[in-house]
User: Fold IclR family pca regulon transcriptional regulator from Modestobacter versicolor.
Amino acid sequence: MDHGAEEPADGRAAAPRGDYFVQSLERGIAVIKAFSAAEPELTLSEIARRTGMTRAAARRFLLTFVDLGYVAVSDRRFRLRPTVLELGFTYLTTLTLPQLATPYLVGLSEELHETASVAVLDGPDVVYVARSGGRRVMATGITVGTRLPAYASSHGRVLLAGLTDDELDAYLEQAALVPRTARTITDPTVLRERVAQARERGWSLVDQELEEGVTSIAVPVHGPSGEVFGSMNVGTHSNRHTPEQLQALALDPLTRAVQQLERDLALTGIRSDHPLR
Assistant:
């Protein structure tokens, strides 16, 4: 085992690790996460810099992944191979919520000609677990598996509204409320008010707080026992619809889709302690 105390490449202080911790596994995962949709091909030097490793260490990990079939190399540039999807496929195949939600998302995107998605809360972030793109492509490039900060998104507001007061207090104490745009709410008191508003209304609309030009509206998805463990939203470019227009256009169809999904969830008996929670 390798228990080195190397600081993460993003500069954050490393959390205390137990004696069980295998740092080489963490570093191997960091190599895979160095790739992105914006930069699907990277050189050895770029990967070493992004992961905080030496070139020699990064090279060993990369060549191991090449041997395992997860990474390809051409002209000294590395890229992920489709085989890497095997690492998450088993988890995805156990999910019930995305499978049930997808037909309703497709229906919404076809009706409204906008994007529709379902997300769950995972720590300080929302994670997209199902998505259907409208005829117009949004700039965010969000796909299944994308993580975004809960405080700045419509998904996040309704999911935070489903927390207990103690859970919300803990979130607000720990969350780093960093401005994503000039409109992002970073005052914990104001954010708490917006979450309370979402809880009272049963929906949340966020206008250009996560990304300039992106407006979205979300409704919570309740499980059979009434608990909130997911959310469904519709997103648009702000130059197509004002917040008021998006609410008028999407809130009723979105609410109907969620109600239909909740009936399906009740029939399956899915619980909030499902792995998505």
User: Anything to note?
Assistant: The beta strands are 41-43, 71-74, 77-80, 115-122, 125-132, 147-149, 204-207, 214-222, 228-237. Confidence is low (pLDDT under 50) at residues 1-13, 273-277.
